[in-house]
Structures are given as C-alpha cells and as structure tokens.
Amino acid sequence: MRVYNFSAGPAQLPLPVLKQAAAELTDWQGSGMSVLEVSHRGKDFVACAADAEAAFRRVAGVPDNYRVLFLAGGATGQFSAIPMNLAAPGATAAFINTGQWSKKAIKEAARQGVNVVTVADESASSYTTTPEPGSFTVPADAAYLHYTPNETIGGVEFPYVPDADDVPLVADFSSTYLSRAIDVERFGVIYGGAQKNLGPAGLAIVVVREDLLDRARPDVPAIWDWKVMAGADSMLNTPPTFSIYLLGLILHWIESTGGLEAMGERNRAKAERLYAAIDASDFYTNPVEPRSRSWMNIPFTLADPALDADFLAGADAAGLTNLKGHRSVGGMRASIYNAMPDDGVTALIDYMTEFERTRA
C-alpha cells in the first residue's frame, strides 16, 4: 500500500504525477522511448524543458527580468556558485545564521575567499528562533545578504522577508519552494533543490535577476557560471532530464489544484492542525518559538525519549514513515510538503493521540 511519507527529502510526490509518469515511462509522447532515454537536444525534450520553465514562471510569478535556470548539483552546489557569481575574492557577503543549512552556506562562502559577516546568529537559542525584524544591519558594501527562509533540520522558518536595502537578497528556498506565493521582486536570487516540493533529487532551480549576471569571477567554471548557463538555456551540459520532466508535471499539478494561493492555504491549515495537536498535549513538545515555526518541517519530542523507538515502530506499522528526527536534533520530525494530503496529517494526529493514550 502507499504510505504517508514524512521524509524531509527526497520527499513524498503527488500521486497523480507519479501515476502519469508511470503511464508514460516506457513510451513518452508516442516516441517508443522513455523520457529517460530521449536526447536532451531533441526537439521534444527541448519543448518539455521550455514548458517546465514557462509553467514555473506562471506558478511562481517570475518577472521577465529574471532568468530561471535548471542546474545539477542541488542547493549544495549553489553554496559554491553563489559567491563565485556574486562576490570577488575578499569581498564582503552578509549572512543570517539560523541553522545547519545556513552554516553550510557560510562555510562554503568562506572557503571561496569571501569575507563573511554574520549579521544575525541564532545559535544561542539552539536554532529555535529567527531574528526580530530590524534587529540587524546589513553592511552597505556587502555583495549580497544570504538567508535560509526555512531550516529543514530545525523546523525554523522566517515569518518575514528580511530587508536588505539595496543589497541583493539571496535565499535558499529548498524546503519551502512553491509552498505559497512570494514576491519574487524582493529577491536578487532564489535557489533550492527540487527534492522537497518539486521533484526528485539532483535538480537545483535558480531564479536570478538579470542585472546580477555580470558579476561572476573570470575564473568561475562554466558549469557554475549563471550567465553561461542562462545563455545555453541550462543545457551547456546534459541536464537532469527526468527531474526537469517531473518538475513540469508537478507544476501543472499545482496549477490544477488552484495555484500557490490555494497551496499556501492548504499548507498553513495542515501545519496549524499538527501544531495544535502538539500544543494541546503534555506528552509532545515542539521546541521552536511559535512565531518561527515552519509550515513544512515540524519537529517534536516525546516526554519520555525512551519511548521514541516504540513510537517510530508503531508509526511504521500504521503506514506513517520517516518520522525520525535528524540525527543532530533527535526526537521526531514530520515534513508535510505540498504533496502531503490532509488525510496524512489527520492519520498522524490520530496515531499520536492513541500512542499518548496508551503510553502516557
């Protein structure tokens, strides 16, 4: 049977999309071949990639003066590409540190020779908070301000978009990409891996404002050079073709279910129901300050950690999988991305209630 997969990524995908992909797997568009087998240079796949980009622009509301890039290497690859494309060695870049993924981006920027200035650091709270708006100052000479809107591991999410003044704002949207509507024009660069809301692992989607495309270092490898990749329509090399194909199917699914306004309302309601169940209990606890709670990744702990293994075993038996928290945090984590239906959240709440009744 299909289970409710609460994995943080690779994550549960929409069942209608999986069924369509399965039906087309051995014969895509009457070609007698799988989409996995066709040439990325062939007119059919070029049209497929163009359709995925057009759908992404419609769904996300991407203005004409932004380029949309489909790149390999996931978000981690972009930790290297961002400083190489936006900051010369020795230039200053500002960062907000709210968790493990922020730390990784900071570490890689320093490795690329950037002068890292951390304008806000939430490590003192064990990464259970976000900085108050207006509590930090971005250096005027910074090449960019980087932040992570949603920290997958800690379940911490910004309730606002930071004000960077005239400094380009760069955001790692990996675990909140297309989970609700955003104003793209607030950002210089939006990037993220696809394996949470947008498809299988291996694809990064980068949205970059065109005026930032001329800042790359002269020695940046072509595969990481946004301007080069934009000029080649993301096909300088063989792109992750199956991921792009599935991205297109998922984008059309989002459109068919009401777009990002409807998606955001569903995601908000799912998260509120799960948090309400946790907060109403003395048996379960969420460690994140309420205003910084993620809609996508919801960690919780049991009153008695000795029961963790029993909780997970019972959840697996009930078809509720991948609820174990990240090894650096412990406890449980329920990732309820776009493809997680309301019924999955209901099933989890029902299981938690019954487990508490019998074990508290």
From TrEMBL:
Enzyme Commission number: 2.6.1.52
Catalytic activity: 4-(phosphooxy)-L-threonine + 2-oxoglutarate = (R)-3-hydroxy-2-oxo-4-phosphooxybutanoate + L-glutamate; O-phospho-L-serine + 2-oxoglutarate = 3-phosphooxypyruvate + L-glutamate
Binding site for L-glutamate: R41
Cellular component, GO annotation: cytoplasm
Keywords: Amino-acid biosynthesis, Aminotransferase, Cytoplasm, Pyridoxal phosphate, Pyridoxine biosynthesis, Serine biosynthesis, Transferase
Keyword ATP-binding among UniProt keywords: no
Record-stated family: Belongs to the class-V pyridoxal-phosphate-dependent aminotransferase family. SerC subfamily.
Protein name: Phosphoserine aminotransferase
Originating organism: Actinomyces ruminicola
